[in-house]
Specification:
Blueprint: E1 17-21, E2 28-32, E3 48-49, E4 53-57, E5 62-67, E6 77-82, E7 88-93, E8 99-102, H1 110-114, E9 121-122, E10 139-140, H2 145-148
Parallel strand pairs: 9-10
Antiparallel strand pairs: 1-2, 2-4, 3-8, 5-6, 6-7, 7-8
Length: 150
């Protein structure tokens, strides 16, 4: 399937890496192909090793916000968002040292969102609203999927 970039820009994907860009284009990160605070009831994320995440541009335009009050585990979650447009690019948790958690929706190649980055796990299903059904073929976890595997 050929890459599909619905917005103009310089995002890319190839056999080695792909990019994720904020809404205004100020911040762009790249990550190697691997297993990658919305105003929404859920978010689609992926996990990447920090060593496999690079900032193509705009790292100096990222603003950080950290807190632990609303995180069930008590871990501190730090959000990294574009200071120009507010797009949340990724998060880091003290519960996952050495890992970043970017948003699938920021990936520039929409075909990757539909294929390689299709969700495989849904967490916190105990909190899902009744009118929203789980993803077909997606593993379900009532709480934190990754804590339950330790």
């Amino acid at each position: 399937m050929a890459p599909h970039f619905p917005l103009g820009g310089d995002g890319y994907s190839n056999d080695k890496e792909a990019t994720a860009t904020c809404y205004c284009g100020t911040v762009q990160i790249a990550f190697v192909h691997c297993r990658k605070i919305t105003a929404s009831m859920f978010a689609s994320n992926f996990i990447v090793n920090d060593s496999a995440l690079k900032h193509n541009r705009g790292q100096d335009k990222l603003t950080e916000f950290s807190q632990s009050k609303t995180i069930d585990t008590g871990n501190t979650m730090t959000n990294f968002f574009c200071s120009m447009c507010g797009t949340l690019m990724y998060r880091r948790s003290t519960g996952f040292p050495g890992k970043s958690i970017p948003r699938i929706g920021t990936i520039d190649d929409f075909n990757l969102q539909e294929t390689k980055f299709k969700p495989r796990v849904e967490q916190f299903t105990k909190d899902r609203v009744s009118w929203l059904k789980g993803g077909e073929g997606v593993e379900q976890a009532k709480g934190n999927f990754y804590d339950s595997r330790k």
